[in-house]
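For reference, the entry.
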Amino acid sequence: MAEEIRNDYEVSSEGAVRHWPVPYARMTDVTPTPTQPARLTGITAGSNVCGTVLSIDPSDSIAVVDFTCGMVYLHEVRNVLTYAAAVEDTWGVINIGQRIYYDGSATMPAGTKLSLSPLDNTGAANDLYGTAVYSGRVTYPLGTAGVASTQEVPVMQRGAGA
């Protein structure tokens, strides 16, 4: 068989950008908001793919979500570390390299979906969303140990394919 160059695929030296349309019904937050974190619902807690909502189309209940591994977005992050009896129990500072989780806890402030806690307020595993990274827009550390707060943090998302 003769060798031939295939031309039915795309290649990028910058890596794949993953902007996927997702039905609202497949997302944890079924009323997604552009610029907010998103998580697909899956079978295994703690292993669902997460990204950032780019746009929504309410007419067909589809959101376009950026699942690109390594993309950096500013997100609100709660500094909660642990929960006890279903409420926030301990809080820490947010620093470069800190793991950030998609936290489905009912106790999270409105509009906040990310925290430092690997477990939600029911003890279920939170999905790893990404990592706090350097940005000239913030000065680390953020927040105060032992004091609950929500901070704007540049987060490099784990995305799909990580």
Q: What stands out?
A: The mean pLDDT is 90. The chain has no helices and eleven strands.
